[in-house]
Amino acid sequence: MLWMAAESKSALQESLLLGGQLPSRHGRWQESSRALRYGAAAATSLLLVALMVPGILSNARCGWSAREGDARPSVFTAEVLREQTAEAECIVNIFLVRHCDKNPPWSKDPTPKTICKAEGLFRGQNLARVFGPGGSFPVPRRLYARQLAEGKFANRDLFLLWPLAQRLGVMVNTSFSEDDMLGLAEALLAEKEAMCDAEPKRREHSVLVSWKHCSIPALAQALGCHADRCTTCWDDGDFETVLWLKYTTLARSGAWNLSFQLGSEEFHPPTRVEGYRECYGSSVESSNFGLPCKPPISWMTGGFPPRPNESFN
């Protein structure tokens, strides 16, 4: 395999956090000095933005307070999100992406389970670019993937995240099975304040989760997102979309405001509609968690609309 040519088997096992290697349920995180330097630079940049963009957030503009139950606005603009970032005492980003590319089971050349087709391996390399230092998104300091099946030592989530994990020098948390998606959501929400308290000098913290697309709408909803895209089913042919959930608070241990942003991995957008065949009958389809999704417009129009680099809901 492509990535095994560059690493020995022992190095690979150290790079991918396999089942049983986590010291605790949430794992320990090891960052290289390079990642720390980039993190410090990012924090400094955000501080400068905060000094340059004054403003006071109001409930009508800053989003939904999950703790206080404020009304949720339907539209977030780039200006509002910039003000959130400038005024926030702490910011936690949670990014949700699908695993690497594969051919479906009914195709002429189906991809064996747990691995990716060649394009999917290159997608992982691209992910290390867009989520790495100098990329399009804030650099994540925590990575999550589905728990490995018994007797397996890789899965498609890990193939996607491995290049980024190597670049950042962090380990991938695989302690949550795909059936325990709600447990993952609960843990991520509970960790927001802990991340802020653990590093009080760092204003922004980011988490990247690679998961099965049938469950991602339910995961987004469990994390508090009720934007249209978070309640829409994920097309079988879409490996490109990034769901960006941004939590901000004006005071540590205060109310959290949630905004949503739609992003792209900037690799290979879907060119045709595939439908929902992979998810019908799946035990981890969103509705089985009590958080169903609705059909996307593309299933009715037969095509995907143009994809801007960013859009807001």
Radius of gyration: 19 Å
The fourth-level CATH homologous superfamily is Phosphoglycerate mutase-like
Outline the low-pLDDT stretches. Answer: 1-77, 304-313
Judged by helices, strands and strand pairing, the structural class is alpha/beta
Order of helices and strands: HHHEHEHEHEHEHEEHE
The percent of residues in helical segments reads 25-40%
Largest sheet report: 8 strands, mixed
CATH architecture: 3-Layer(aba) Sandwich
Provide the CATH topology. Rossmann fold
Give a summary of the structure in a few sentences.
The chain crosses the membrane at residues 35-57. This protein has 313 residues and is an alpha/beta fold.
Question: In words, what does this structure look like?
Answer:
Helix content is 31%, strand content 15%. With 313 residues, it is of the alpha/beta class. The chain has one domain (3-312): Phosphoglycerate mutase-like (Rossmann fold), CATH 3.40.50. A hairpin with a 7-residue loop joins strand 6 (241-249) and strand 7. It is globular, with a radius of gyration of 19 Å. The model is unreliable at 1-77 and 304-313 (pLDDT under 50).
